[in-house]
Structure formats: C-alpha cells, structure tokens
Design brief:
- The protein has helices at about 1-30, 35-40, 45-55, 65-75, 90-125, 130-145, 145-160, 175-210, 215-220, 225-260, 270-280, 280-310, 310-315.
- The protein folds into 2 domains: about 1-70, no CATH class; about 100-280 and about 295-315, MetI-like fold.
- With about 325 residues, the protein is mainly alpha-helical.
- Helix 9 crosses helix 10 (about 225-260) and helix 11 (about 270-280) packs antiparallel against helix 12 (about 280-310).
- Helix content is about 80%, strand content about 0%.
- The radius of gyration is 24 Å and the shape is globular.
Length: about 325
C-alpha cells in the first residue's frame, strides 16, 4: 500500500510540474501575451481589444496571483472559455475526449491481439519462416509514418475496393454497426506502430525467458510444455511488454491528431488544430494539460499492473 501511495504522489507531483511549465511558457514568451494571441498577419491589434483580452485572461494581475488562480481553476476543473466561440473549454474536451480515447483503446486492443500471439509464436520458432516474415513486416511498419498508412488504407480499401468507408463519424447509440465500421480503419492505422513495437518486445522477452534457469527447472520437473509456457515464460515476459505498452499508449495521444484528421474522426485534433491556428490560448492549454494528465494516468496504471505481475517491484 505504501508503494502505491508513493506512486500516486509522484504522479500528482508530475502533474503539478507539467501544469507549472505550461503556465510559465506563456509568460516566458517575449512581448505581451495578449498581443501575441491577437496578432494576425503581422498587423498590430487594437489597444482596446488587447486591454480587454488581458483583463479576461487576468494578465493585469501579479504573476504569483495569476499562478495561484490558474492552479485553483485546475483544481475546480475550470479550464476557462474558448476565445473563438466563448464555449467552455472543459465542455469541449468532455465532448471530444471520449472519441479520442475510444480510438486509442480500439487501436491498442488490435495491436495487443495481433502482437502478443505473433511475438510469442515467433520466439518459439526462432529463425523459422514466420519469424523472418513477421520481423520484416514489423520493421516495415515502424518505418512507415502513420499518416501514410492511413492514406493508403483510404486509397485501397475505400477508394479502390470500396469495402470500407473513407471516414466520418456516427454516434454508437445512433447506429452501432456503422459506428464500428467507421472506427475500424483509423483504429488499424493507430495500431500499426504499436503492434510492431509490441511484437518485437514480446519476441525478445519470450526468448529471454526461455533461456532462464527457472524454465529449465520447470521442464525438468516434468511440467507440460503448455504449462511452462503460460505460467513461467509468458507471465515473466509480460512485465517489460507492459512497460513498453504504457509508454506507447501515451504517445498514441499525440499520434491520433494525424489519424483523426485523415479519417475525419471528431476527436481532440479538430479543436486543437483550430485553437493553434487562431491562437486560442485557453483551448490549447486545456487540451495539452488533458493529454499530459492522461499520459501520467496511463503510466500510473501500468506501474500498478507491473507491480501486480512482479512483486519485486513493490519492494524497490
């Protein structure tokens, strides 16, 4: 329990550090932040408009007071309102975040379902035909950018073969089959890089476990090959795989921006791109903090799973 509380405390401290860095970034930029937000095409904004924005953002107050108000707002879940349409940032994130998380979860499930069995089989048949082909495919998937894979999926499956829709979104409650059909291609595009990484890590971990003394001892005791594989090889091989999975699930939060754009999936990418173009500071900060918080949460969950699989971690 003490180890769990310590890990939670570290995650909370990291979340505070990220929020502080994001806050200070605005104030470290040379010049008036309000003028930078309102400047377009090199033209100077109207002084009255700048003064109004400074008041709305609280920039006229001392820096320490601004920082305190910023942290208090985060504690209350208040991320401010969009400068574009006066819409609450939290409401926009609450609307679109589940769609992005659904895409990430679907891509992760596909990657795990493909990579873990394939990596284990390749390790058990090291040097065989399947091992060589699968390793080559994994290397190719790592080399090809995600937007290229997404574009090829649209070109081949949607435009040429016409077996899948090119993109779009329909709520699950409105039309479940259509929703899952539209989810399939972007989820596959998301899964391509993660599946390649997990395949290589699973293969290496299983090969390492197979060479351990406890596996040879289990075989010497007369245990069946299936029992040795499940209880001694795979279980011990999963700990480094979980670590890699947690790290890459966090990076998927950033990789979904391109995938959502290619497949017109209305997740966090649309308001983020629009906010960056319009210099909508509250929206950009809100989405960045949300993605950072999710990254920390995913890594905390993976740490807890890691400790559940390997009791030695809790003793460290």
């Amino acid at each position: 329990m003490l180890w769990v509380l310590r890990r939670i405390g570290i995650s909370v401290a990291l979340a505070w550090l990220v929020a502080t860095i994001v806050f200070m970034t605005l104030h470290m930029v040379p010049g008036d932040p309000a003028e930078l937000l309102l400047s377009t095409g090199g033209t100077m904004p109207d002084p009255a408009t700048v003064a109004e924005l400074r008041e709305r953002l609280g920039l006229e107050r001392p820096l320490l007071n601004q920082y305190g108000a910023f942290l208090m707002g985060l504690a209350r879940g208040d991320l401010g309102v969009s400068l574009i349409d006066e819409y609450p940032v939290l409401d926009e994130i609450a609307l679109r975040l589940p769609r992005t998380l659904e895409l990430i979860l679907a891509g992760t499930l596909i990657a795990v379902a493909v990579a873990l069995p394939a990596g284990t089989y390749a390790a058990l048949h090291r040097g065989g035909l399947f091992d060589r082909i699968a390793s080559g495919v994994a290397a190719l998937l790592l080399a090809v950018p995600v937007f290229v894979v997404g574009t090829l999926l649209v070109l081949v499956l949607a435009q040429m073969l016409r077996v899948m829709p090119a993109g779009g979104y329909v709520p699950f409650a409105e039309d479940p089959p259509r929703h899952l059909t539209l989810l399939a291609l972007p989820a596959i595009a998301i899964a391509k890089g993660l599946s390649a990484v997990l395949f290589r890590m699973t293969r290496a971990s299983v090969l390492d476990s197979l060479s351990r003394d406890y596996v040879r001892t289990a075989r010497a005791k007369g245990l069946t090959a299936r029992r040795v594989l499940v209880r001694h090889v795979v279980r011990n091989a999963l700990t480094p795989v979980l670590t890699v999975l947690g790290l890459h699930m966090g990076t998927l939060l950033g990789g979904t921006v391109l995938v959502e754009y290619v497949f017109n999936w209305p997740g966090l990418s649309t308001p983020l791109l629009r906010a960056v173009e319009a210099r909508d500071y509250p929206m950009v900060v809100g989405i960045v903090l949300t993605i950072s918080g999710l990254f920390l949460l995913i890594n905390l969950i993976m740490d807890l799973l890691y400790a559940a699989l390997d009791p030695r971690v809790r003793a460290s």
